Amino acid sequence: MKAVPRTRSLPALLLAVLALVLAAVWAPGASADTSVSTIARALRAGPVYVDPAARDQLSDADADTLADRIKEADKPLFIAVLPDGYRTTNLFSDLRAATGVTGLYGIRLGDRFDARADSSVMSSAARQNLVRSVQGEDAKAQLADFTDRALANMGGHAPRSWGGSAADGSGMSTTGLITTAAILVIAGTGAYALVRRSRRRREEEQRAALDRLRVVVDEDITAFGEELDRLDFRPSEPGADDAMRADYEHALDAYDTAKQRMAAARRPEDVRPVTETLQDGRFSLARLAARRENRPLPERRPPCFFDPRHGPSVSDAVWTPPGGSRREVPVCAADATRLADGRDPVIREVDTDQGRRPYWDAGPAYGPWAGGYFGGGLLPGLLAGTLLGSMMATPTYAADYGTGYGDFGGGGYEGGDVSGTDFSSGDFGGGFGDGGGFDAGGGGGGDFGGSF
After folding, report:
1. Crossing angle (nearest 10°) for helices 272-292 and 366-374
2. How far apart are CA 75 and CA 96, in angstroms?
């Protein structure tokens, strides 16, 4: 009798199917995109991540060499190598949010390369020039050149989660380990003392800066309270309507909120939301006054440049500061008339070690105060050539007060610090590929604008 072929058992068939599925999943070029969270976890553990589907771009040995170089330089530089076709929508902003560490992020995606950075680590112009300088190179050369040039020009420090150098110390003898440990203890003690001294000095400087700001902000709050009193509005007065009452209520809330925020301020940068609130309250008062007098409602404009206590500006006027260049500044009606008549505007002066000076020549502490009134986008043109404008453009100012021209609300995070999702969306926005000035002429209107 002819033998009947033996059929496969069900378990054997299931194993065969599982093997085929796994082979399909892990086959080069056929894998699903690695999640941004997975990439972020890898970058928190080390500076270089190479996707399994992009290993033909950069070998493990070359990746380790890059990682060692970055760790030895103690800089917050993150490199990710991803396969061609990886989704690019919000890639940089999502990765920055998932990683939660301030730094410079470079991504090689197929044969394309781009980068983004927190402004406290590298300026937009420097990053764009850097990205442009490495275009067209193969992966190994491109990432090596980008790393070398970035490490020489970026700020910040490596995140603690990297745990120091990636060099393998498994071959070190017990005696070597003991000696090294002793040296580290001695060095660590000295370094700790230096860090504590530096931290105390910085805290003392910030306290002194905040004390100066308190005087100015208290004057602003008092002036706003006096405006509320002079308005003499009663919600029940004849002719008052719901819109008037809403404006008045908003102004009262702004007054109370400004006082509370100033009382809670612990650093100079905490002043920005206070002056933002005062500016918002003054605009509500301007709307209320217009409603009561049956005038057209005012447009939303920045406050008078010469003294924000003058209220919202009504126009722009050409003004030339002593020793500076001509520029347009927002002005109130009274100062616009003075300038038109050839007279000097009424300028806000504050106390300094050299006596009373205009606020823009009084020192770096007034940056957050001015930023709350005028916003980062407006200030560069207004303050160009002034003492405050020059100071605000330096990395030291950004580190001390958590702010630069474009970011007056920063939390003071330096490169390598864990900030979570507290970062400027403008620094990491836009499409992959446009941030490096790929188009002829480089640099467009926005730091990270455009599309892929």
Report:
1. 40
2. 16
The rounded percent of the chain whose pLDDT value lies above 70 is: 68
pLDDT of 353 reads: 79
DSSP-derived 3-state class of residue 357: strand
pLDDT at 243 over 50: yes
Q: Which residues of 198-212 are buried (b: 16+ CB within 10 A; e: fewer)?
A: eeeeeeeebeebbeb
The rounded distance, in Å, linking the Cα atoms of 388 and 383 is 7
Q: How far is CA 354 from CA 215, 307, 350, 351, 363, in A?
A: 17, 20, 10, 8, 11
Give the H or E element holding residue 435: none
- What's the rounded mean pLDDT across residues 175-196? 62
Instruction: Return the number of other C-beta atoms located less than 10 Å from residue 430's C-beta.
Output: 22
**CA 128/CA 389 separation, integer angstroms:** 23
Give the angle 426-126-129 at the CA atoms, nearest 5°.
105
Residue 232: which pLDDT band, with cuts at 50, 70 and 90?
Answer: confident
Gap between the Cα atoms of 161 and 435, Å rounded = 28
Q: What DSSP element (H or E) covers 163?
A: none
Q: Give buried/exposed letters for 348-370 (b at 16+ CB in 10 A, else e).
A: bebeeeeeebbbbbbbbbbbbbb
In the chain, the amino acid numbered 248 is Y
Angstrom CA distances, 327 to 115, 380, 408, 413, stand at 34, 11, 22, 32
